[in-house]
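Example record for the data management plan.
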Amino acid sequence: MQKVQKLLVGIFLFSILFSMIIGYNTQSVAASKDDEKVNIDNGDHVQEQIKANERVRFRFREKTRITVESKERANCSIDCDAKDIGDKDFEIEIETDDPQNLTISCKEERHMLGLRKGNTVEVRNQIRHRYQEGFVVEIESSEDDVEAKLRIEENDENRGGTWAYYDKKNEEWVAVETTSNNGYLECKTDHFSIWTILVPEYDFTLLLIVGAGIGAALLVGLAFILIKRRK
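Corresponding structural encoding:
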């Protein structure tokens, strides 16, 4: 009889402990907004039908967060290499007139495109940029007529950086206008491609030489004016 009672007590305590663990895991991924639905995926792939004007956040391996919001219904397929990417927060907001099939693939690096962490990359304006974000996303849609906003949370690796897409036709990276808004780097686009954040790399030696040249020119001009006044 005592053994049976001990067994029942053990089962009761285990059920309480199990409920506490489940409750803790659910609370730790609570939505940050009332209208935001949160899906949890412990793997690297998720497929979901997103309703019109619905905002859905996918969290992969409790690390990488991908948030999708679409004006029209979207059949969304996401592959995310969260194990290598780590703690990143990416958002995409899409406006289109028709339902779409949306494919998103996220990786830490794309070696064939020159994206290794720490590598320098030349963009269309010939200014060298450094790739240190560790997040590159390829986006494809069944709709050509789209407008979208891309956002990624600012951190020490991407601060001061700019969104850039890969122009497959010309085989080059193209930087686009990027703003810092509420802790996120944000850009607008009317097409999908391979996107990442690149940080401009300035040649401080050249800046010093140019600055010294301008300073010398100013001194020569000032000396000339003083000499002329004395005469």
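Summary line stored alongside the record: Confidence is low (pLDDT under 50) at residues 14-32, 203-212.
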